[in-house]
Amino acid sequence: MLISPAYAQDAAGAVGLVTQLAPLLLIFGVFYFMLIRPQQKKQREHRALLASLKRGDRVLTAGGIIAKVVTVKEGVDEVEVEIAPNVRVSVLRQTIGDVLKPIGAEAPKA
């Protein structure tokens, strides 16, 4: 009766703060290792792929067009690709989604 309810609540305040923050920190850690970190790795690999483009590579654009790289200029954001015989277009490097393996490079069937 002599202890007011405010003092009783204050004693558990420090422990309650830790127990409230622990799940939030755990969720952030899980998000970092399962979402943020793999996405950063994928972006790094894509930038390296775009930097290593060379003449003759078969590429897949973001629009779904499979083309052959004809001209690559360093320091320029555009790449000239051939989408059909004697049909050349310029595309931005960022729209290139993947570099495809050559047709004959598949593993032989056993």
From TrEMBL:
The lineage of its organism: Bacteria, Pseudomonadati, Pseudomonadota, Alphaproteobacteria, Acetobacterales. The chain crosses the membrane at residues 12-35. The SecYEG-SecDF-YajC-YidC holo-translocon (HTL) protein secretase/insertase is a supercomplex required for protein secretion, insertion of proteins into membranes, and assembly of membrane protein complexes. While the SecYEG complex is essential for assembly of a number of proteins and complexes, the SecDF-YajC-YidC subcomplex facilitates these functions. Pfam families: YajC. Keywords: Cell membrane, Membrane, Protein transport, Translocation, Transmembrane, Transmembrane helix, Transport. This is Sec translocon accessory complex subunit YajC. Part of the SecDF-YidC-YajC translocase complex. The SecDF-YidC-YajC translocase forms a supercomplex with SecYEG, called the holo-translocon (HTL). Belongs to the YajC family. InterPro entries: Preprotein_translocase_YajC. It is found in: Cell membrane. The keyword Transport applies. Its main location: membrane. It is a single-pass membrane protein.
